[in-house]
Amino acid sequence: MLKSLAKPVLLATVIVTCAFGQEIHLKTRTFSPSAQSAADLPPVRGATSARQTVHQIVAFDHTPGVADLDALVTAGAQVTGVLPDNAVVVAVSGGLNTRPNGAIWVGPMEGRDKMSPLLQAGGAYSTATAGESLVIVEFHSDVDATGQAALEASLGATFLRPAGLMPQHVIVRASVTDLAALAEQDQVAYIFPADPAMLNGAGIYSCAGMLTTSGPVPQYANITHGWDLNSDGIAHLTYYFGALTPKVPAATVESEILRAMAQWTSNVNVAFSPSAIASTTRSIFIEFASGAHGDGYPFDGSGVILAHTFYPVPVNSETIAGDMHFNADEAWAVGADTDVYTVALHELGHAIGLSHSDNPGDVMYPYYHRGISLSANDIGAAQELYQAPVTQATAAAPFTVTPTVVVPPVTPPVTNPIVPTPTPAPSPAVPLSLTIDPVAASTQASTWIVTGVVTGGTAPYTVQWQTDHGYTGTAVISTGSDMWTACDIPLVTGSNTITVTAFDSSDHISSQSVTITMQPAAATALPISVSIASPASAVVNVTTPTISVTGTASGGAGITQVTWQTSNGATGTATGVAPWVATGIPVPVGTTTIVIRAYDAKGSSAWVALVAVRP
To answer: What is the pLDDT of residue 224?
Structure first.
């Protein structure tokens, strides 16, 4: 979730868990807690009185539900952080002396867990040799400015708070001894290297946390989940563009986001392709929205939150997993703050499953600036989830031939050496030639088919295509024929140059290009309208586990479908369109936002929402 400088605000952190038996992943270590009895609980650390707040780790052997959260609340605990896969960090006065119902393990957060590996001995920013380091100290989310100031005074430290710093962060210049003392303070959650450029606050933006449907994950936690790979070893994902900002031409916005996608796909086994519908599995829905927009995390005007992204399955459920939302109220631009490409590059890292880096200069560092590129650390973290693409490993990129340079061993000089004359590959009797059949100059279609013929050279052939917007693919060559067909080539609004290249078995190459202009769809005569008739109120109290919602939809190019989605990840399709009826919408205990979205025949949509409160 990227945030601008003016009013950084942290979201409340709740719980994200998986089945017990999976490990708890911290930046500093990974461990599996074992079951314990109440008598086995370790002594409470950091509490000098029953009234002093203490932070502890609570682990479960199952996915915690409402009853588990209620048990924590009953015990006086407040959840302040998520530790994948099956634990949370809680704040409680005096500490937990007994295990809450449903929990199997309670333990302290140790000092070693709070010090970034980059600051520890042997780390790139270790103070053991550097004397003092500039670091960010992250406090637990329940420690407010008053609590931070109290610790500052008690330690005699100087906390720096330049513009743009998140409210749970301060900057400190400290020695290894000072850092060790800070890490032992219960209020402190994590310490990691600071970017010196942050001291002036200019051009630096913050990311408040890794977003889940239950809340953000703190800096000290480590996400280790990505999308499952398909049978070919690649995570195939689709994307769908919803409403875009009018402050930048739509074709430019799409091009910049696709350019960011290309940066990731060129380094890892992830492939993106356009989707014809917004809500589907393994799909990233990309939209610019204002205020409340149906996911439980409303944007709050300009200068606060730039964008937010939901982690992939299993951290989040379908269909919200991977979705990217940009704040439409920001002053979006290309090549200047606030830069679409830079924000998209960071958010796409979250969309494919990357957590925040501790290393300044990485794209996935929680503070970023315009113009940054993927670092070796960013690429390495992504390749841990998806591995390097085969084309990268074999240097077989479709349109780039990179010669391999072999450095020979050093040997004594040879007098009058005999230098063999290299034998060039024989040229075919007929040179390799690829031709492209004529194509339309323009279209309103989002995909296109290109056909042609390949002749000469040395069979068999391979024909590949690539667009100037980063899409690539392989054409199909008809059996027993020299005709080839490239299907479903994605187009973006504006000019699209498609380059098709033929390779024969002797490594000869022939290429041709065509250009197609995708025209924007004609404006609809009437805007899409969707409304809720029942319940009549925008906020409704319910006592049952499900709710039914009715309403009407009209306009656009003719309404074809009405869907619903809840802030808890449940989705479905309503019956009818004008009127429509959505039944069996689950409403768990608490507050649930229900978004009703109507789609027309051209894929455009509009939405309306209500909030259901179940005591």
So the answer is: 76
User: What are the strands, taking DSSP E only, across 76-204?
Assistant: 77-83, 87-93, 103-108, 132-139, 169-175, 188-193
Residue 19 pLDDT greater than 90, yes or no: no
Contact of 289 with 299, CB cutoff 8 Å: yes
Q: What whole-number distance in Å separates Cα of residue 188 and Cα of residue 148?
A: 9
Q: CA–CA separation, 96 vs 93, rounded Å? A: 8
- Does the domain at 433-518 match CATH 2.60.40.1930? Answer given as no
pLDDT for position 33: 77
Question: pLDDT > 90: what percent of the chain?
Answer: 31
Structure tokens at 287: 């939209």
Q: Which two tokens stand for residue 554?
A: 């009209």
In the structure encoding, which two tokens stand for residue 371, read together? 């113009």
Task: Answer yes or no: CATH 2.60.40.10 is held by domain 529-614.
Answer: yes
Residue 262: what are its φ and ψ, rounded to 5°? Answer: -60, -30
Question: What DSSP character marks residue 156?
Answer: T
| CA distances for 497 relative to 65, 396, 552, 563, angstroms | 52, 22, 42, 36
Residue 264 banded pLDDT, cuts 50, 70, 90: very high
- Residue 523 is classified by DSSP as P
Quote the CA–CA distance of 399 and 242 in Å, as a whole number.
32
Q: What topology is assigned to 223-390 in CATH? A: Collagenase (Catalytic Domain) (3.40.390)
Kindly report the CA angle at 211 between 207 and 215, in degrees rounded to 5? 115
CB 171: neighbour CB atoms within 10 A? Answer: 19
**93: how many CB neighbours lie within 10 A of its CB?**
14
- Which residues 6+ apart lie within 8 Å of 11 measured at CB? 1, 208, 209, 211, 215, 216, 297
**Which residue matches tokens 């790139």?**
124
The pLDDT tens digits for 368-408 are: 777 788 999 999 999 999 999 865 433 333 333 333 333 33
Nearest-angstrom CA–CA distance, 389 and 27: 26
Share of the chain above pLDDT 70, in %: 82
Token representation of residue 94: 């005096």
Domains 223-390 and 529-614 share a fold: no
Domain ranges within the chain, ordered by starting residue: 8-208, 223-390, 433-518, 529-614
Among candidate residues 200, 180, 193, 198, the one with its CA nearest the CA of residue 357: 193
Q: What are phi and psi of 37, to 5 degrees?
A: -90, 170
Asked if residue 561 lies in contact with residue 577, where contact means CB atoms within 8 angstroms, the answer is yes
Q: Is the pLDDT of residue 470 over 70?
A: no
Distance CA 279, CA 566 (A): 12
Token pair listed for 255: 């091009």
